[in-house]
Each structure stands twice: as structure tokens, then as C-alpha cells.
């Protein structure tokens, strides 16, 4: 079984091309995602994307590390467009996902992806409630959220827990500096990540509202540089990298470590993990 | 450039076969290790092993994530023997490393590797100072070090710091249960790891000294089951897995993220990280 390892702003994915044929049966997709994302005994990634290319559009489905299916991811979208363009040599304009159709465009080494409209819903004491397709609490800070985010963790957890009754929130810190915005997000269910696409868009909107208006905002994240075009879309613009092509050896379902960990995560009657015999 | 992703008890490695020719120039090997081990923009691994097979022996060199070269690693050794046996179809009896020659043997699905002799140097109040090729402080515990190790971290750090003036020590916790020993190690410079080969050997020696003597000890780690034959070698016996074959796309040196992170880790005169322009 063939796959590709790709990343956008250090948000990394296993990409499986199912254009010619289904490679992982539908019912196996969640378990494959759990296995493939395991960084030590699988391939190692934040998620798995399955694609079907049908120029001028391409379909992308994305599964998280826990096997759940997500609607959309800006970083994954760029990787898919880069793959279809450079590996399949095809030209695509539309990316189809569970969250609908998104305009995409290759701009030299950069890839632009139309992302859900972002809107400031409420201004509160500590920051801004923003809907960017997913809920964000944008907090302006003078600290450097890229290198100095450790000290922000407790506050981020406090803000997160206040919104937990309403399904929780992604807490995005933004530090305006001379010619760019430095952003890092404490993501719901994940924690700090190198670069959260919707967080970058939410922070750019608030930045433009207070200091702008700006047509385009240049954002630095721990995963690299992104740009947000607010006047057109909005568009999330960034790079993507195709790191390598892989060929699995043997059937991933037979992978002993995956079986052992699935087996050991099942609970014995006493509630303790049931561990296989050390044979 | 071709590589293989392998793991032994969830201690994972990028394997580069240089039998036919040098694949990564000597001077690039440390930098390649730093790039390849990066779990998001590289391949992702604990280390990189370079091998040259010359039956009945095989040479293994191993580089850590930080680019430093290590002398030996039991988990990596099993992966190398599995690769030479199953992928190259060759029969090897001796593994050559910086720490010398090690007897190796394939036993069905298990692989036995001769590891450095282990010796209890001193018995102190909290545990046992053991030389297993590398220094270990073995501490017996009633807690389950596989699932319940969080609570042991502070103590492990305290013990580690007491030995820091003497170069530090790996702190290995061992919990004897009915028919097996449960072991986890707080490794020098790394922290908790799924399975440390020398830690498993050190703990087995102490276990045999107190409750034995035993010819062979069965050990459960967070990375799976290992066995230690004390009467013969000693031998560290365990499984290994070849997960996939990979083909890098383009030159890893040109990998923009690796360049960006190397560039951004260089310091400007003020001491702050020097960050590339967000172009």
C-alpha cells in the first residue's frame, strides 16, 4: 500500500490517493487513521487525508489521530493541492470537503485556499470571540507566543474551561509586531500546535479590526509563515511540503504493535488494561 | 534516496542501507539525523541507523535526534538484524558497533542480541547502582511503571540530579509481579521512553539478585515484551518491526522547513532567534 507524507506549516499528514481505486475500505478508515498517526509504530502524523482527484476539482476527506472525521483543515488543504499539482500533474481550482467547496489557487511556491468566512461575534474583557468556521477566543498579548508560550498555558486552560459548557473553544494568542502578527493556538482537545489555520484567520481579522483595516496580513507561526487575504475570500495562503513516498511492508492490520496496543487498551472486568501474555 | 522505517519496542529508527554505496556523506550524517528525526517535517524517529551488511556480520552506526553518535542501542540492533534477514535475505551472526562486536541470533519471531555485561556496583538506600554499559539507578516500586509513571517523575528527576555531577544516570523503575517484571526508564537527556534496552537488562539483574537467581527474566515495557537471558551473554531478546519503505522527494537539504528551523535557531547579536522574513 502506497502513501505520501506531507506537511503544511509543520501540521503533518499521511496522504492516501484513492483516485484510481479505494485503498482503505470505508469501515477501516478510522482504525487506519489511529494506526497511521502513531508516531512510533505507525507512520506518524496529525491526521490522514484520503483524496480523489477529478480536475478541475479534488475531494479531500480528513481523519484525526483518534479516528474521528473532521470537516476541513487549511493546512491539509494546501498539501492536497500541492500533491495533485506536482505529483499528479493536474490543475485544480476547487477543493471539495465535508464543509463544502473551497476555491484553491497555486501562486508560485505558495498555495491559496478559500477558508470559511470569519466573524467577530463578541468583544469581552480578555479578548474577542470569533467564529472562523470553528470557535476561537482571540487574545492579544505582548509576549512572543512562538517561543514564549509556556507561560500562557494556565490562562489558556482557564479560558478554555470557561467555554467548555458551550463545547469549548480554541484559544488563539496574537502578538502584533512591526510588520507581522505572531500567532499560536491552544487547540481544543489537542493543546498547543505549531500552526492552526483557523486560528491564524481569526487573529488576522481581529488585528485588521483594531489596527487596520488591512487587505492582507502576514502571520508568523511556530510552523512557518502564512498570509491571510481578508479582502478576497478570506484566503489562507502558505506553503506545503511533500516529504516522501512510502510503501507499507505487510498489512497494517497485522502490525503486532497496533494489535497489542488495541488489545491492551481493552479493559478487563476489573477495569485494569487487559495485557497480552509476554510470549 | 531510499530509507526504511523500523521500530523495536516502539523505539523507532530511520534505517539507511549503505552496503552498496554511501548514501549520506559522512559530514552530513549528523545534520541528516537532525532532519530525519523531526517528527513533523522530517520522517520522524528516535534515531537514524546506517548499516553495511557483510555476512556473517553487519555494521551498525547510530545517530541520536540531536545529531550525536551513540555507541550502541539494543532496540536498534534488533531492527538491523530483522532488516538484513528479511529484506536483504542474508544470515548474520555478528553485529559490529562502536561498542564492539555483539553476537546476534534470530529465534523465530524473536531476535536475540548480546548486550554489554551488567554489574551491580553499589546498593544504596533507595536502590541499586548498576553498570549496564551505561549507568542505571534501579529502583524497585509497587506502582505500575507502565501505566502509572507520572507520579514517579519528580523522584526520578531528584535521583537524576544527585548523579548529575557524575554525568547523570538513567533512572529505571521495576515492579515485580507474578510472572514478569514491569519496567520503565527515565532516560538521561530524554525523559520517559517506551522501552530502554539497557534499563531492562539492569532491572532484570537486580530482580534476579533479589528474587532469583533466574536464567531468564520476562519483562513488560510500555513498548511491548522483552526477555533477558542472564545465563548467556546477557542476551536482550525481543521483536522488531519493519513498518515501511520510503523514498525521499527531492533533496532533504533543500527542505525549506529544515532550513528555516536551522536559520531560525541561529542567534542574532541580541541573542534573540534570527527569523527569516515571512516572504
Please give a structural write-up.
- Two copies of one chain form a homodimer.
- The first copy, chain A, is α+β, with helices and mostly antiparallel strands.
- Chain A is built from five helices and 18 strands.
- Chain A has helices at residues 29-37, 74-86, 153-163, 197-211, 256-265; strands at 2-8, 11-17, 47-54, 57-64, 69-70, 94-97, 100-107, 110-114, 119-123, 128-131, 135-140, 170-177, 180-187, 191-193, 216-221, 224-229, 235-238, 241-248.
- Chain A has an 18-stranded mixed beta sheet that branches.
- In chain A, strand 1 (2-8) and strand 2 form a beta hairpin.
- The two termini of chain A are 29 Å apart.
Topology, pairings included?
Two copies of one chain form a homodimer.
Chain A lengths: L1 E7 L2 E7 L11 H9 L9 E8 L2 E8 L4 E2 L3 H13 L7 E4 L2 E8 L2 E5 L4 E5 L4 E4 L3 E6 L12 H11 L6 E8 L2 E8 L3 E3 L3 H15 L4 E6 L2 E6 L5 E4 L2 E8 L7 H10 L14
Parallel strand pairs in A: 2-3, 4-6, 11-12, 13-15
Antiparallel strand pairs in A: 1-2, 1-18, 3-4, 4-5, 6-7, 7-8, 8-17, 9-10, 10-11, 12-13, 13-14, 15-16, 16-17
Amino acid at each position: 500500500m502506497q502513501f505520501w507524507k506531507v506537511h503544511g506549516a509543520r501540521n503533518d499528514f499521511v496522504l492516501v490517493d484513492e483516485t484510481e481505486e479505494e485503498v482503505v475500505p470505508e469501515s477501516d478508515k478510522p482504525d487506519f487513521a489511529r494506526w497511521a498517526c502513531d508516531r512510533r509504530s505507525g507512520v506518524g502524523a496529525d491526521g490522514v487525508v484520503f483524496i480523489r482527484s477529478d480536475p478541475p476539482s479534488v475531494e479531500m476527506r480528513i481523519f484525526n489521530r483518534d479516528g474521528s472525521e473532521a470537516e476541513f483543515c487549511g493546512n491539509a488543504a494546501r498539501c492536497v493541492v500541492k500533491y495533485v499539482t506536482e505529483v499528479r500533474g493536474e490543475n485544480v481550482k476547487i477543493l471539495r470537503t465535508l464543509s463544502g467547496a473551497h476555491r484553491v489557487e497555486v501562486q508560485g511556491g505558495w498555495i491559496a485556499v478559500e477558508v470559511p468566512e470569519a466573524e467577530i461575534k463578541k468583544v469581552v474583557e480578555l479578548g474577542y470571540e470569533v467564529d472562523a468556521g470553528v470557535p476561537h477566543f482571540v487574545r492579544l498579548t505582548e509576549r512572543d507566543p512562538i517561543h514564549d508560550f509556556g507561560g500562557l498555558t494556565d490562562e489558556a486552560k482557564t479560558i478554555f474551561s470557561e467555554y467548555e459548557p458551550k463545547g469549548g473553544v480554541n484559544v488563539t494568542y496574537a502578538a502584533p509586531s512591526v510588520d507581522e502578527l505572531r500567532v499560536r493556538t491552544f487547540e481544543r482537545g489537542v493543546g498547543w500546535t505549531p500552526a492552526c489555520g483557523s486560528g491564524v484567520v481569526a487573529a488576522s481579522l481581529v488585528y485588521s479590526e483594531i489596527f487596520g483595516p488591512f487587505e492582507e496580513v502576514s502571520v508568523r507561526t511556530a510552523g512557518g509563515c502564512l498570509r491571510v487575504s481578508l479582502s478576497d475570500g478570506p484566503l489562507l495562503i502558505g506553503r506545503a511540503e511533500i516529504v516522501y513516498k512510502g510503501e507499507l511492508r505487510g498489512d497494517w492490520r497485522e502490525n503486532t504493535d497496533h494489535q497489542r496496543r488495541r488489545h491492551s487498551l481493552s479493559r478487563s472486568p476489573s477495569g485494569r488494561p487487559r495485557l497480552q501474555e509476554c510470549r
